[in-house]
Sequence to fold (320 residues):
Amino acid sequence: MKVSARLRWRLLVVPRVLLAAAVLARAVVRVGLTRRRPQPPRLPPTGADPVGAAIADARPVSRFPGEPLDAADLRGLVSVGEWEVEDGAAHNTVVGLDDEVASYADLAEDGLADALADQPGIDAVEHIDRETLLVRSALSLPDVHAAAVRALLGVNRSPRRTPRLRPLAPAVLAALADGVAGVLSRHGFDGPHWTEFRRSLDGEGLTQVVRLCDGVGHHNDDGTVVRAFVRVTVEVVEPAPTGEVPVLAVSYDRTPATVEGITRVLVSQVLPLCASTASRAAVVDRWVAGLPWHVPDRPRREAADIARRWGFPGHARDLR
Fold:
C-alpha cells in the first residue's frame, strides 16, 4: 500500500528525532575520547640555515619600478607552520605570505603554487587564497620555508603565467547545447533555443526548462581553454501575467564543459529529477517528503502558498 508523503514524514518524525539524539550523544562521547592526531614525522633539516642558503646571492627584481628589494627580507615575508592533519587531509604545512610579497610576484597570475610544487621534497600544493598555500611534505619546516622562498625567487625572474579564468564564448555554449540536444529530445524536450531546452507538462500548466549557463574556463594566451565548466540548471516554471514564475529550481555546478561531461550529468541527475517532478502532485510531494528537516527548492512558506493555490490544502498545512 502506498503511503503519502504527508503521512510518511509524520510517521518517521519520532524515530528521526531519537536517531538525531543518539547521533549527537555519540558525537559528544567521541569528542571527549578523541585525541589530537599526531603530525606525520618530518625529515631533519638539511642544513643549519636552509633559508639562508636559498637567499644567498639572490638578486630579485621588483615588479614596481624604482623599488629596491633585499632577498634577506623574505625570511620574514614568508612564514611556515604546522597544519593539523585530519582524516583525509591532503596537507600538513601552511605557508603564509606577507602583503609585501606582491613586490616579488603577482600571486594570482605568476604560478607560485606550481613553482613550489616543483621543488624537491614538496608532494602537493594548494593555493587556497592570495596569501596562503597548503603544502604536503615530509621536509622539515625550515626546508619547506626555503622551498617557498626559492619558488618565489624563481617566479620573480621567470613568471609562470597561469591561464586566466574567463567566461566561455556564447558560441561555445551553443555548440555544447547542440551536442546534447539528442539526449534531451529523446525525453520530450524541444530545443535547443540557444542554450535552453523546454518540455511542457500536459494538463499541469507547467513547463520544465533545462539550461546550460555560466560557462567558464581557464584561457591560455594562445587561445586554448582548459578546465572549463558550465552550470546546468533545471526549473519547473508556471505561467503568470508577468511572464513565467519558477516553482522549482535546481542547479548542477561545475559540470565539465564537454558533450560527454554534460551528458553524464543529464542522464544521472537531470533527467531523473525531471521524471520525478512531472506533475503538481509530484512537486508538492517532493517538498513535504523533506519534512521536518528541509524543504527543497523553495522557501517553506512559499512552498506552502503554492501548494494551497494548487489545491493541496493538507500539504500546505504541513508546510506552514
The chain has ten helices and ten strands. Residues 5-33 form the longest helix (29 residues).
